Amino acid sequence: MILILDFGSQYTQLIARRIREQSVYCEIQPCTIDLAAIQSFKPEGIILSGGPSSVLGELSPTVDKAVFSWGIPILGICYGQQLIASLLGGKVQSSEHSEYGRTEIQFEKNSPFFADIPDQEPLTVWMSHGDLVTEAPAGFQVLATSTNSPFAAIADPEKKIYGIQFHPEVTHTDYGIQILKNFTFNICKCEANWDMAAFLETKTNEIKAQVGEEKVICGLSGGVDSSVVAVMLHKAIGDRLTCVFVNNGLLRKGEAERVVELFSRHYKINLVHVDATDTFLTKLKDISDPELKRKIIGNEFIQIFEQEAAKLKDIKFLAQGTLYPDVIESESFKGPSAVIKSHHNVGGLPENMKMSLVEPLRELFKDEVRELGKALGVDEELIHRHPFPGPGLGIRILGEISREKIAVLQEADYIVMQEIKAAGWYRKVWQSFAVLLPIKSVGVMGDARTYDWTIAIRCVNSTDAMTADWVPLPYELLGRISNRIINEVKKINRVVYDITSKPPGTIEWE
Ligand code: XMP
After folding, report:
1. d(CA 74, CA 89)
2. CB of 138 closer than 8 Å to CB of 99
3. Is it the case that residue 331 has pLDDT exceeding 50?
4. 424 vs 102, which has greater pLDDT?
5. Short-list 110, 31, 358, 68, CA closest to 211
6. Which end of the chain is more exposed for a tag (fewer CB within 10 A), N or C?
7. Which residues are the active-site residues?
């Protein structure tokens, strides 16, 4: 396995994922773990990730120098490279010419680190840094240079220590995957023998070891992630699992019935269905701030889980389908990265929660979860469901929420789903949905003036939700959706299409 020590880059998990895509197990740990913990993973290689700090800063995160004497190959990326340089006697400076975006490098073609890259020069890579290595440590060679980075890649091949200024994990770097493959196979000598079935086995054993003979409740939303967790846990611990499905009143049309049918009848998993619509909507009354809404919804979910756990007695664990993007954008998880939104299953947890968490998907991206679902034999239709956020329609109704607005959005959203499916686009896109903009605009229908709300349609493509592109849906399809919504949904007199990518937008509007 390859161990990544995370210094807080938004891209750390992408590195892990690129390596897992090569059928080599890769795990991320915080940069703060000690030497004994690092050794306990018995890694074939260690990657020091990028991060927002500066090695020139006083309290900058670091790693014990002893790792460099173990003979285990090490690759430092961006901040990781600067750390290698500064710890091993090289020099790092704050550069006046920071490089963000595409840059061209000249590289050493004979190095195994750059093997199997077509003999083209220069190579386009993606950089994002302020600081810069200005002197390599003794014994290091220069493997690549760019106009602004004379040390774009450095190496001590004997000690198998490599440092690169650019990010091979992002798609903007040409042959970035090949570079990571070269490190994994040529330098670390890993074998490609890991897959989702192996992950499933490891995680199942971990769950069994963590849970022992105790009972677990699983927060089930009916989406891909929590469903995969539920099926996985059911296989691991059988009837000691009870799923708790909370209807917060902010679900899609028909969703509650579907979930109950699927899990209690089809999968035969113990299921408690709590209709908490009134409680949620009372707590959300007059609340318009998106983060506050997310926190209230998240807290309420946890309170209900705790109440249900108390009723079921002796429940020590709460299982959730938390994914990596939920974690990385919600909190400084394993390194110091920025908070974008509080995803409910991460941001809202109380510090004094009595149950311990079981989160087997915490390191995975959605498409990896889908692979896992397949390995588990979960139904195709469920596996391919579009993501639906925990706070549900609550963050798709801008500003204050009311029962009337929920009903309007449910109807509009239902039409969007029906038409996207009928046109054969459902499986081709990452996510599609309607957003209610409760601001009024003037229209004319049947010779009369209307003054009603707007529906925005959002349809994006993505592989991991960290970045996304809006989808150019055919005009005829958009036209049909618009016509149907305006004709069939009361209170709506205008439909618009969202043409914002992420970044700068996020997928959900709140
Ligand atoms: P954003 O809006 O951050 O969304 O670009 C990225 C992906 O995550 C989903 N999402 C959530 N999922 N709980 C979840 O389980 C949440 O609180 C939450 N907020 C956003 C969103 O639908 C998209 O797929």
Report:
1. 16
2. no
3. no
4. 424
5. 358
6. N
7. 78, 167, 169
Place of tokens 């709590």: 274
Q: Compute, in angstroms, the gap from residue 425 CA to the centroid of ligand 1.
A: 21
Torsion angle defined by CA atoms of residues 223, 430, 177 and 149, in that order, rounded to the nearest 10 degrees: -110
The single residue listed with the structure tokens 């430092």 is: 76
Mutate to test the pocket of ligand 1, among 470, 508, 509, 510 (most ligand atoms within 8 A of CB): 508
In sequence order, which ranges of 270-312 are alpha helices (DSSP H)? 277-283, 290-312
157-207, pLDDT tens digit by residue? Answer: 999 999 999 999 998 899 999 999 999 999 999 999 999 999 999 999 999
Closest among 346, 312, 356, 322 to 209, alpha carbons compared: 356
Across 64-75, average pLDDT:
97
Residue 337: pLDDT above 60?
no
Q: Is 350 exposed, middle or buried (0-12, 13-18, 19+ CB in 10 A)?
A: exposed
Q: Please tell me the pTM assigned to this model.
A: 0.79
* CA of residue 411 relative to chain centroid, distance: 29
460, β-bridge pairs: 431, 470
438 CB-near residues (< 8 Å, 6+ apart): 397, 398, 399, 400, 405, 453
Q: Which two tokens stand for residue 506?
A: 């996020």
Q: Assign residue 249 a region: left if phi > 0, alpha if psi is -120 to 50, beta otherwise?
A: left
Nearest to 388 by CA among 267, 232, 255: 255
Q: What angle (nearest 5°) sits at the alpha carbon of residue 441, between those of residues 435 and 442?
A: 140
Distance (Å) of CA 215 to CA 184, 198, 222, 228, 262: 40, 25, 21, 18, 22
Residue ranges of domains in the chain, CATH in brackets: 2-187 (3.40.50.880), 196-383 (3.40.50.620), 396-497 (3.30.300.10)
- Condensed to tens digits (0 to 9), the pLDDT of residues 390-405 reads 899 999 999 999 999 9
- Closest C-alpha residue for ligand 1 atom 10: 389
Of 5, 71, 68, the closest CA to residue 34 belongs to 5
Residue 388: closest CA among 272, 220, 503, 234: 220
Question: Phi and psi at residue 80, in whole multiples of 5°?
Answer: -60, -40
What distance lies between CA 223 and its chain's CA centroid?
15
Q: Is 393 in the pocket of ligand 1 (CB under 6 A)?
A: no
